[in-house]
Fold these 2 entries.
Entry 1:
Amino acid sequence: MMTPRQLGEDALVDRLTVLLASGPGVLEGPGDDCAVVEGPGDGWVTVLKTDCLVEGVHYLPGTPGEKVGWKAVARVVSDFAAMGAELGHLLVTMAVPGDREVEWLEGLYRGMNECAVRFGGSIVGGETSSLPEGVPLLISVAGSGRVKRDGWVRRGDGKPGDGLYVTGRLGGSIRGKHLEFLPRMEEAQWLVEHCALRAMMDLSDGLAKDLPRMAKASGCGFRLEREAVPCTDGVGVEEALGDGEDYELLFAVEDGGDWEKEWAERFPDLEVTRIGELCEGEAGSLDGGWDHFGRG
Amino acid sequence: MMTPRQLGEDALVDRLTVLLASGPGVLEGPGDDCAVVEGPGDGWVTVLKTDCLVEGVHYLPGTPGEKVGWKAVARVVSDFAAMGAELGHLLVTMAVPGDREVEWLEGLYRGMNECAVRFGGSIVGGETSSLPEGVPLLISVAGSGRVKRDGWVRRGDGKPGDGLYVTGRLGGSIRGKHLEFLPRMEEAQWLVEHCALRAMMDLSDGLAKDLPRMAKASGCGFRLEREAVPCTDGVGVEEALGDGEDYELLFAVEDGGDWEKEWAERFPDLEVTRIGELCEGEAGSLDGGWDHFGRG
């Protein structure tokens, strides 16, 4: 018998998604931040994403409902941002033990609503299921949005020689950022329009996990300049690579152009840092990062 | 402190959904089988739905993965059917303890894929999260589909005098039907085109819960002819009203027309039965049916 823990998250997902038949109208199936399917027409296509939060895994018991709700929606918004997409309509599945506080759940919904509205979306429905007492609460958010047919960004279209960049600073998210982060939606859309962007994803499992994923998807190797990695104050480079939950953008840009200067003028409060480049060869791995099933 | 168990499912959902702001392009928000939003144009709008299965609540441990997967998707398909909609693209969120069998999860994905393909849809992505050992596995399925702008059916558009009908037979689903049912998608689309259909929903929590919901949403009372309720062989009328998980259609039709005869020719293996009518007045309640938080 093989278990998810023995297999690890990426290999498990590979084994499961290979069982799925592709249907009509699918432009991007499993494997990227979001799926992309034929949609509204007039030059736009539809973007779909689901994600979930589990009590004790993604937040600690006792965290205010408002913060958990913000995070539940913001994680999905961050994935939309990583495709260069706009947020649309969201659905919420909540599985909750019957003995929880309704007031906490109301806070959760207020937090979800606040984040959805802040980024131009709305929650249009959902489903509530009971769990036995003592079982961790779970919230799943599914969203649809849209992106221009010629404007969406895969994680797998990087080329050797592309510069690798990240927004913001990495590491130490557990101190609070993981509950309060601002998805980089506006910044991502700006990048689509202002630089020769080739690949993009959001950093959720740590640069050490996510950078090799981008390189592998692009069929490239990568060179990481560890000393260039922008670290949160008080955080070392190991933590910056491994902590996860940064919700910053990792992206690959064809070299050249003046976009970094323009960025500094447009987003003076958010640094963007070149941390290396894609190169010929196979994507290696880096130590650290978050695997849901405990493989390092 | 108030808990979901004290409040009951419907009142909980009311308290939470009132916190949600409506956004642009929302034609039908929380409260019906699915949400409906502006979509692809050309006379079509988009239908969105999410649902979930929890081990020990919606299926017993030891149930083959294929059957659980079929059910996970079929429940969503049944909600699409109840709007008169077509199935499109699906996303899967799975939260699973790290010590489960990968082979069982593969069966789950095969079952989900089989049901999606059977009803014209496809699974385009998802998310996998770990749970601690000993916690029940949870699968959430979110779907998008489409329906003609002038062809979708609310649960709340019934009028006094409308005949109330159900497909199939009710009760006793736990003996096996709840894992193997065929969502009534083709039948629902036929009804949209062949009778003066005013309101429709699928029966998931039992006629005793769902019929009062339809009447209340329509601002009507109802008369139920209990002796007319079509019961599964070996099942009494109490169970037929209360067992739940029938996944049959409940619908309200303006009186008149020859559609029942046409139905019998088109669907000779699936009976349709008049069980009462909507009337003036307030919707009362019926004993029985399934409340997720244990209120009868």
Note: The mean pLDDT of chain B is 94.
Entry 2:
Amino acid sequence: MKTILFLVHEVYEDLELWYPKIRLEEAGYKTIVAGAEANAIYSGKHGYPCKAEISFDQIQEERIDGIVIPGGFAPDKLRRVPKVLEVIKQAHEKKKLIAFICHAGWVPISAKILKGKNVTGTSAIKDDLENAGAIWHDKPSVTDGNLVSSRTPLDLPAFCKAMLENLQ
Amino acid sequence: MKTILFLVHEVYEDLELWYPKIRLEEAGYKTIVAGAEANAIYSGKHGYPCKAEISFDQIQEERIDGIVIPGGFAPDKLRRVPKVLEVIKQAHEKKKLIAFICHAGWVPISAKILKGKNVTGTSAIKDDLENAGAIWHDKPSVTDGNLVSSRTPLDLPAFCKAMLENLQ
């Protein structure tokens, strides 16, 4: 059974974490949520609570098969965590799924893995994505190798379809 | 394209509405959300906003192919609305999908369609379901003809799988 890592922090976008998480579980994947502190509860932008099952320090990159990064304001925190960036870099080198939606593109920007890559994300961070060398597209989902990205919660159906195809 | 109706009211359980809604859209269904007032925004138990696209009065039973009732405390309000109960009764007579999760079982109880039916729901309303003549099971999802039910948000993967099978 493949294991997909979710990264959480304060003010994550509630549905951008929970929809992909439950959807992957429905499709038979194991999910694990990592946050700054194990067992801490993080609040979504709209208040939905999410418990971190493990801390960032406890992430073992070799034991995961893909990473999902939800949007909201959480990515602004996540991109500052060296362990988070290191895990993303390692997973990317092994061509494991890295999926990011909305503002989550900030995190792969800081992991420096987007140069020359086709991506999407909320129009608010289009400049940041392009300044990092990515090619931004105005589409519900964009796949470039192991990278899957979407713009907003309205794209969640397309985001999950693309993610599931990528994992097969 | 089949259309599935969602019923919303204040303090609906956020994921129990949004997960099935996005999941059905991903699978190619049209969804429509009805609330007491068209264009009003209802707050989930955890704060996620949901706009009612139409009012209960605007529901046309002949134009829908199934109904999903999320839990939370909203079902306590929904069960008092004669139009809601009438639509459920009509849809049930035509064997259209009626899916309910957690506390949502209160609504089909008040629509008086559960006598002799196999169902589940949060253990908190087990007595109410049994007193209405239903047979309660402690399972992630229970299907009895056109009725699909689940216990809690943790059952959402099973709830949606059962719902999608039922719609095929």
Note: The two ends of chain B are 12 Å apart (CA to CA).
